[in-house]
Design goal:
- By secondary structure, the chain is mainly α.
- It has 15 helices and 4 strands.
- The chain has one domain: ABC transporter involved in vitamin B12 uptake, BtuC, CATH 1.10.3470.
- The strands form 2 sheets. Strands 1-2 form a two-stranded antiparallel ribbon.
- It starts with a helix and ends in a 14-residue tail after the last helix.
- It holds the Pfam family BPD_transp_2.
- This is Branched-chain amino acid ABC transporter permease.
- It is a multi-pass membrane protein.
- It is found in: Cell membrane.
């Protein structure tokens, strides 16, 4: 039982990333009808916003510390971050320590701006083109962004630690009645799950309870009629593209302590996220979120030792196997609209 609970937690952690990226993909497909293969790159760019913020906060100048000597007895030269110089050692050190959450302040405008630039500069020209054309151009854009990141940050993963207060693990088992030490789980993975739940809840609340969101949902259902009412639905859809990019970027920012950022991490998540979207149902926001968590948990269960002994390699193919079964039995996905992907 403790192994199952642990794998459930792992699955919710994986599912959080899948659900956030798939949510952004579905927002774009549902509003603009665009199959955006560059969306995984948004996740990657968000992760490197966290890397950039940490580097900015660690910018330092060299000083001589007369209280410290080298082996020859000469005063040591030390690097003092500007943040510590401006705000003091304690507050400056805390700001550097919390660089990952602080990077959200950088990621939001960067991702929204990048989303606007992508949509207005490139993707708007492919609205009426076949999905194959959309896939080719957005996949090419993803490769360009990937190579830009590789050029500026290198090919190796860049460790980006969580705040020291959350660097350890919690004895989760004691919270639910298990003996001490039965279920030890990292703090930051739990925080990532809670963060994902807040973002997902925020997106759904925005679409459900705001006038802007209601108009967007109406435009998703009948774009022409909303346009005839004198509403500039294209502008609202452009804003939704920026929001979708921001959702993926925030997912990437908070994921950096779990998986050190590298230039190909966007591609690693992209394929899985598209599978999640297809399983949940193209254009279905609840389906994308539900399928993200479902497939994350199933993938985690498939990695149990006794499961792999019984079905070797099942942990590598379980997501694709579920996708095949769903597409054969329900082509529009678990919660997809009738007629979508059923032609």
């Amino acid at each position: 039982m403790d192994a199952i609970i642990l794998q459930t937690l792992n699955g919710l952690d994986k599912g959080s990333a899948y659900a956030l990226i798939a949510l952004g993909l579905t927002l774009i497909f549902g509003t603009l009808g665009v199959v955006n293969f560059a969306h995984g790159a948004m996740f990657m760019v968000g992760a490197f916003c966290a890397v950039t913020m940490r580097r900015i906060l660690n910018l330092s100048y060299e000083t001589v510390d007369p209280t410290k000597k080298d082996f020859l007895g000469n005063p040591l030269k030390v690097q003092t971050p500007y943040v510590e110089h401006w705000f003091g050692h304690d507050l400056g050190g805390a700001i550097i320590n919390w660089s990952v959450p602080i990077a959200i302040l950088l990621a939001i405008p960067v991702m929204i701006g990048l989303g606007f630039l992508m949509e207005r500069g490139l993707i708007k020209h492919f609205y009426k083109r076949p999905h194959a054309d959309q896939i080719l151009v957005t996949f090419g854009l993803a490769i360009v962004l990937q190579e830009i990141i590789k050029q500026f940050y290198g090919a190796n993963p860049i460790p980006t630690p969580a705040p020291s207060q959350f660097a350890g693990a919690i004895d989760f088992g004691t919270l639910i009645g298990f003996p001490a030490g039965a279920i030890i789980y990292p703090y930051w993975r739990l925080i990532y799950f809670l963060f994902s739940a807040v973002i997902i809840g925020g997106v759904f609340s925005f679409l459900q309870f705001t006038t802007f969101g209601m108009v967007v949902r109406a435009g998703m259902a009948d774009r022409e009629t909303v346009g005839l009412l004198g509403i500039n639905i294209d502008r609202r859809f452009t804003i939704m593209f920026g929001i979708a990019a921001a959702v993926a970027g925030l997912a990437g920012v908070m994921y950096t302590p779990i998986n050190s950022p590298n230039y190909h991490m966007g591609m690693d998540f992209l394929v899985l996220s598209f599978v999640v979207v297809v399983v949940g149902g193209m254009g279905s926001l609840p389906g994308a979120v539900a399928a993200g968590f479902l497939l994350g948990v199933l993938e985690s269960y498939a990695s149990l030792n006794w499961v792999k002994e019984f079905l070797p390699g099942i942990d590598q193919i379980i997501i694709y196997l579920i996708a095949i079964i769903v597409l054969l039995t329900r082509p529009r996905g678990l919660m997809g609209r009738k007629g979508v992907m059923e032609d």
